[in-house]
Amino acid sequence: MVSSFKAAERLKCIKSSGIRRFFTLAREIPDIISLNVGEPDFTPPKHVLDAGWQAAREGKTHYTPTNGVPELREALTHKIYRDYGLSYDPDSEILITVGGTEAIFLALLGLVNPGDEVLIPDPGFVCYEPGVLLAGGVPVHIPLLEEREFKPSVDDVTSLITDKSRVIILNYPNNPTGAVLSHDEISSLVKIAVERDMIVISDEVYEKIIYDAAKHYCLATFKGMQERTLVINSFSKTYAMTGLRIGYVYGPKDLVSPLWLVHQYAVACANSLTQYVALAALSGPQDFVKNMVQEFDRRRRLVHKKLDEIKGFKCALPKGAFYVFPNVRSFGSSSEELTEFLVREAHVTTVSGSAFGNYGEGYIRISYATAYEQLEEALTRIEKAVKKLH
Ligand SMILES: Cc1ncc(COP(=O)(O)O)c(C=O)c1O
């Protein structure tokens, strides 16, 4: 019997992420090289993982406080103070979440009213728009253009703000473009948020994955910003633990409390054992992170150099995260057609720029969170395959 049950009406406004589609396509090809993944290919240090086993042996397998174990919240307040000189109350201003993804979702469900406009980056991380729509909000796209190094223009942002604008989402270092903002660039952007009394959700999950002389500035450190900024962060990228699903969000109590309420009913608390893993990651030596970023840097240069040599790709050397976002317009096909072509002809998966928004059309995202030799092989295959397109 065919079931007559259907998904709820509210899901009509969202569809499955364009990134997932490729997993299915790629599964059928045995020698596929995946450059579509958004996760480090490293394993966290043994002492970090051991903290999880140890916690299990000690019987820490029960619900934790809704906002997370006190030791982890305490350690995070020290980390935030050390990194950015900002103080937060560990009991009321930090919430431990199931990855940054949950934190983004909580922020949108907790703060956006039906009809509120939310400015989101385009191209931007795939969770923002569905989160806004499910909250009943209206996504307003901030164009991130290649000619401006994928940085938002103050004029564009100003012109997009209306009486209904409530929240701006910013994400630096950026997925999918790898862009990073300078101190001055952030200053002029956040000034708008202060003048128009808007909330800023600053997604900083790539804060530690940054290269050359580029520096990451936490948005809450800017004048007038701590009281209106929710910072989203995660252990996924910095400590290569995407599957452990552990993240956090911090901000002023008034902004964090609504998130807490949704979190309480949605997940009760984050996984107890991974909270101890996160604590060990945060408290121990940080050379693992440094070494991982050094290796990413080596790969970043390789991918950029190779793409530069392949006719048809055009891209700048990105300053953060682990993605390059080349312009592929000269191939004369859509981004999606090109990514499909690369799967079939080169056996390499990438992501169509259009999966990140309309302004991503004409680009593809290549992740270099894959072994150096694999990247070399993938780029050789791509070079050979695209020759057929000229
Ligand atoms: C910009 C950005 N924010 C948030 C996340 C969420 O990561 P997680 O839920 O694993 O912490 C990702 C993951 O790809 C991301 O790229």
Q: Name the CATH superfamily assignment of the largest domain.
A: Type I PLP-dependent aspartate aminotransferase-like (Major domain)
Estimate nothing, just give the exact number of structural domains. 2
Hetero compounds: pyridoxal-5'-phosphate
Poorly predicted regions: none
Strand order of the largest sheet: 2-8-7-6-5-3-4
Number of strands: 12
Main β-sheet: number of strands, strand sense, barrel status?
7 strands, mixed
| CATH topology heading of the largest domain | Aspartate Aminotransferase, domain 2
Average pLDDT taken over every residue = 96
Structural class: alpha/beta
Q: How much helical structure, as a percent, in the residues?
A: 25-40%
CATH top level class name of the largest domain: Alpha Beta
Q: For the terminal residues, how far apart are their CA atoms?
A: 51 Å
Shape: globular
Structure description:
- The structure is a single chain.
- With 390 residues, the chain is of the alpha/beta class.
- The protein has two domains: 11-40 and 287-389, Aspartate Aminotransferase, domain 1 (Alpha-Beta Complex); 46-283, Type I PLP-dependent aspartate aminotransferase-like (Major domain) (Aspartate Aminotransferase, domain 2, 3-Layer(aba) Sandwich), CATH 3.40.640.10.
- The protein has twelve helices and twelve strands.
- It has a seven-stranded mixed sheet with strand order 2-8-7-6-5-3-4, sandwiched between helices. A three-stranded antiparallel sheet has the order 9-12-11.
- Helix 5 links the parallel strand 3 (117-122) and strand 4.
- The longest helix has 23 residues, at 287-309.
- The structure holds pyridoxal-5'-phosphate.
